[in-house]
Amino acid sequence: MNMKSRHSLAVGLLSLGLIAESISFALLMPIRSAMAATIETATVPIVQSVSQAQPIVKSESQPTVQPDVKSSPTELSQGITIVSPILKAVIDVPATTVVLRFPLDSQVDLQVNGKSVSTSLVGRTEKDRAKKQTTQTWYGVPLQDGENTIVAHIISNGQVTQIASVQVQVRGLAKQITVRTAETRVRADGRSTVTIQGELLDANGNRSNRDTIVTLKPTAGEFVEPDASPDQPGYQVKATQGEFKATLRSGIQAQMVRIQAKADDLDAFTQVQFETDLRSSLVTGSIDLRLGKGGTDFYRSFRDFLPPNGKNNYGLATHGAVFATGKVGDWLVTGAYNSDHALNQTCDGTARLFREQQFCDQNYPVYGDSSRTDVLTPSIDSVYLKLERTSPTTNGIDYFMWGDYNTEEFATRSQQFSATSRQLHGLKANYNFGNLQLSGFYGNNVQGFQRDTITPDGTSGYYFLSRRLVIGGSENVFLELEELNRPGTVLERKQLNRGNDYEIDYDRGTILFRQPILRTDVDQTGQVLVRRIVTTYQYESQQASKSNIYAGRALYHLSNTPGRESWVGATYLKENQGTRDFELYGTDALFSFGKGNVIAEYAHSSNRSDVLGLVSGSAYRLEANAEIATGILARGYYRKTDTGFANDATISFVPGQTRYGAEVTGSVSDITKLRVQYDHEDNTGIAPREIDTLQDLFAPRNQAIPGSRVDNSLTTIAVGVQQRLGNANLDVDLLHRDRQDRLSPDSSGSSDQLRSRFTVPLSKTLTFLAQNETTLSSTVDPVHSDRTGLGLDWAIMPGVNLGLSQQFYTRGQLAGQSITNLNLRGEYKFGTDTTLHARYGILGGADSWTTQGAIGVNQGWTISPGLRMDLAYEHLFGGFFGRTGAGIQFAQPFAVGQSASSLGLQGGDSYSVGLEYTGSKDFQAGARYEHRSSSSGSNTVISAAATGKISSSLTALARYQQANAANQTLTGLGDTSNLKLGLAYRDPNDDRFNALLRYEYRKNPSTIPDTILFGSGTGSEDHTLALEALYAPNWRWEFYGKYAMRHSSTTLSSDLIGTSTVSLAQLRATYRFGYSWDIVGEARWIAQPSVGFHEMGFVVEAGYYLTPNLRLAAGYSFGRVNDRDFDGSRSAGGPYLGLTIKLNELFSGFGLQKPTPADRKPKADTISISPVSPPIVQGVTP
Predict the structure, then answer these.
(1) 603 and 586 Cβ atoms separated by less than 8 Å
(2) Domain boundaries, the chain
(3) From CA 554, how far away is CA 440, in angstroms rounded?
(4) Which of 46, 683, 948, 1007 has a CB 3.0–4.6 Å from the CB of 923, allowing a cystine?
(5) What band does 69 get if pLDDT is binned at 50, 70 and 90?
(6) Could you report the per-residue pLDDT of 441-455, keeping only the tens digit for each?
(7) If you average pLDDT over residues 357-384, what whole number do you get?
């Protein structure tokens, strides 16, 4: 019995009054001595003192054995004391200074974790003969991470006479990460900032003192500080001594923002609310009144100048545009109106959903101010209106709006079959009543809706959609991963962003990605995965006038705790598509508890198919994840979709498939884990038919054409073990499969397969892995083949890995085929980067003139600072067009609707290599070469871009792209090429003269699959050259000139070539005399000699500012058109009067900015907010 036990026993006996005479004096005295010491030093912890002699055994191979004691400093006159470190001290480094105090002339032995410390570490010894004490300091005593026990002995005649010990902790490696925000809510004004703070904690909960890089990923906003590691994907901040800090600038949209902090395998989440910015009111806009001939308005649309119908009568024309925002009570009101055109209309006359920035909207990057504009009022019609507020309910935003919107409230975590992800226009509302959230939307101009799934070919494009004339801005592009030969369950789904991840030609219906998209991948367990490109979009339809859509959703929040959200929801959606109607309703729930959660969902759909007529069906989903005991994780799932169930606006699934099962994983020890899994799958219904006719290609349907019936089931039972062998891991699984095919009995049967996987680190950055799947039974499963895989994974830098894998298929339907994959990938594949506006910006960004640095999917290897390389290689030997439970797979350019299960993989090779240089502000460049070759054809993609300053006044930009069709079976089209060059001149010391030169070459810019019908000789080319200059010698004079020419040629055959040349010239001169008068003269000339077309127009106008906001103008305009092929010549001209009113307020002074008098000081708690940049008033010239 040790001293601590005897002390506890004595205290218990004394408290009960049960001291017996039989207790021996030898046992009682040490207890009383200990009690006495405790009473005398009641305010300090107890130091255990052992008077009974104990021998010390020292050995190099065996640590010294001593009692398990815990103590801290005390003032025993005859004992030993550890003065420093104190009990439970937390030490930064694995070494410390130990200060001992013991009786004079005593022999001391110091041990750490049972091992003696060398006396060479004794640095200082002080003797106090008056107190008969010695104070000894030991420097640099080594410790280990985590808990450490420091024990000091007094040795007399080779035996221990006194012992003192303390427990200390050394900050160890990070085992946990925490993140929080100093603010719980900030205004969504684009200026307010959030301070993000976090710590790395060791296994004992102490802050780790290690330095590392932490990746932060918010769902909105942008970071203020520079990226600590620009070469890694995402935004990084450096953690110093285990602490990190970053500043996030708010966006302009009120929302709850989720922030992820990730370091290696550790991650944590927090959230902050961007609340509605109840800013002071602001109004801007103009009203134009013009009295003159209707067809002679020089500054209006070119289409309306000199109209062919000859309607040039005098009349009063009114044009207006206004933007307003400001608070009304607790609500923020934002609205815009344009009487001439849609708010989203751009300089090229198009009006797309969520209006993209165009060249004519932005200052050319030669200005170098790096400013940014945001579209606050997106709408494809002339009106936008939104009322919003931060709801009194926690984490809620209330709003009512008319304009362009997406449907994020209808695609929550608990929704798959009932989810809807669309880009629409119309009315939308969201309101919170306590814990009840109600959402709804209505769209009155819905066009045809299409879903296409495409198998990538290892290059970046061009990928042709099944439809042309896509509605701009309506597309949603996803990358999905699912198991090879096991369609129906998507393992990963990532949404991509237009501009950052891909570019799209809406007229042609083509997508070109910023980086090659490989066909396959390998997950962490060695499974071969196949990648799909899923795109949903609207296209121009003849029945658009009869189409509309409306939906509603109710969501009751049971818990809003971050990471433990719980709710119950219900959804209803109805879409009228002319002759095709679609209805969807369902209910879903999420319940979170402890470390687990349960998701339940039911959905029902009915639609009028253009193939099968009126069909309906239901879908069910139940998923549960829980930790049923310490170290034991369990997962259960059930998914079922009826054959008639349909929903094209959600994740991919297989109609008629049922799948359910359970999995349990548990730790037997620190190095051994066991797992058991049961999985059952049923497939019934009709599999999709192959797209193999010209009609299927040129007149696609919304849903797949029915093919052959399927009726089969598969039961899989797996038992496995994971064993850690030193630094290596060995996984062994035994799988039993029982397959029943009721339509093809020959495919039925049972099989047993042994799967083994071995991974071992060859170095700190290089890992070798090997996997083998061998059938033990005499029969081989007709779908799952035997294979052997080898691979190497090289961690080039944190977040970037270079992986090489080789898969050989030896038995089964894929026997003799192989897959080789070399891929440079990042930790966050296709993730969102919150520094989109700054990282690769060239003096503020230049749209399609930007370099090759596409942030969304760009992963690279930093060769040297500023120089990055990315590469990929993939080899598929033989085509992967086998039979699956969902039917037979084919080679086809795309699969429509929910028929992705019919897509197979073509064999062939694909590789790509790219270089990018961003190390200088004065020069940035990037280039990539991609090639795919197979028995069905080849595709070469070349992309290169560069920008730089030739001198302080001259900036050059260049970009080249070349690609062909990347879809399976789509061959015979010519390459599409595009070359852009630009030169900009501006002297920063004297900006009186500015000039811009642009050249563009295009080859086959409008080639589509239909072109194949015209033969291989079809092609087109055009060259465009433009020069413009601005000269302002002083504030009175300003001269502007522009000349542009485009030469086009179209080749239908070797002896049939058409050419055309179009020219444009424009001159303008402005003179200002005084501060109230100005006069301007402008002329333009357009000609197309090949068709005998010439147009000329000019205008002279004088203006007087009655007030700074009111301008009166008078002028004369004239124009003439000579059109040989149509209506001959026409001309018109005449004087006009104009009145322009600049708006800066509405009713009751709304929008009027009132300056603070000079003698008044704002209150201390007053916050003055001004916009980052002037609001956009679309279609209005200041």
Answers:
(1) yes
(2) 1-40, 41-170, 176-275, 282-443, 970-1149
(3) 9
(4) 948
(5) very low
(6) 999 888 889 999 999
(7) 67
The answer to whether 353 and 375 have CB atoms below 8 angstroms apart is: no
> How far apart (Å, rounded) are the C-alpha atoms in residues 1131 and 135?
110
CATH superfamily of 176-275: Immunoglobulins (2.60.40.10)
List Cα–Cα distances, 1136 to 305, 313, 1007, 1096, 1100, in angstroms.
14, 12, 46, 19, 10
Neighbours of 128 (CB within 10 A): 11
| 970-1149 placed in CATH 3.50.30.40 | no
Distance (Å) of CA 732 to CA 479, 719, 755: 31, 8, 6
Identify the CATH class of 41-170.
mainly beta
For the record, the structure tokens of 723 come out as 């064993």
**Residue-wise pLDDT tens digits, 974-992:** 899 999 999 999 998 888 9
List pLDDT tens digits, range 482-497. 998 889 889 999 999 8
What pTM did the predictor assign? 0.80
Look at the block and give the residue holding tokens 């001594």: 241
The answer to whether 89 and 67 are in contact (CB under 8 A) is: no
Cα 563 versus chain centre, distance: 19
Contact partners, residue 143, CB within 8 Å, separation at least 6: 91, 94, 95, 96, 112, 168, 170
Contacts of 512 (CB under 8 A, 6+ apart): 460, 461, 462, 463, 502, 503, 504, 505, 961, 963
Token pair in block for residue 493: 């789904």
How far is the C-alpha of 808 from the C-alpha of 683, rounded, in Å?
28
β strands within 812-922, DSSP E: 818-826, 861-864, 867-877, 883-884, 887-888, 895-896, 908-917
Residue 773 · residue 755 · CB < 8 Å: yes
Peptide linkage before 988 cis (omega within 30 of 0): no
DSSP lists the bridge partners of residue 427 as 402, 442
> How far is the CA of 671 from the CAs of 147, 633, 718, 723, 833, in angstroms?
21, 16, 20, 6, 37
Q: Which two tokens stand for residue 77?
A: 């006159």
Bridge partners (DSSP) listed for residue 1116: 1100, 1135
Only one residue has tokens 């127009």, namely 1097
Q: What proportion of the chain, given as a percentage, has pLDDT over 90?
A: 48
The DSSP output letter for 14 is H
Nearest to 1145 by CA among 1133, 1153, 1135: 1153
Q: What is the pLDDT of residues 895-916, one digit of tens each?
A: 999 999 999 988 889 999 999 9
Tokens of 857: 């999917």
| DSSP state, residue 1089 | G
* C-alpha separations of 592 from 279, 628, 818, 988 in Å: 38, 14, 43, 60
Specify the 3-state DSSP secondary structure of 35.
Answer: helix
Same fold, 41-170 and 970-1149: no
CA 603/CA 649 separation, integer angstroms = 13
Q: How far apart are CA 783 and CA 484, in angstroms?
A: 10
Structure tokens at 439: 């959402």
Cβ proximity of 467 and 1009 under 8 Å: no
d(CA 650, CA 641): 13
Q: Is the dihedral of CA 482, 483, 488, 490 positive or negative?
A: negative
Token couple for 720 = 């496995």
Label residue 961 exposed, middle or buried (CB < 10 Å: 0-12, 13-18, 19+). Answer: buried
- Is 833:856 a contact under the CB 8 Å cutoff? yes
| Selection from 520, 610, 546 nearest residue 897 by Cα | 610
Residue among 733, 582, 691 at smallest CA distance from 646: 582
Is 1082 in contact with 1066 (CB distance < 8 Å)?
yes
Indicate the pairing of strand 159-170 with strand 90-91.
parallel
The band of 699, judged by pLDDT with boundaries at 50, 70 and 90, is confident
C-beta atoms surrounding 36 within 10 Å: 10
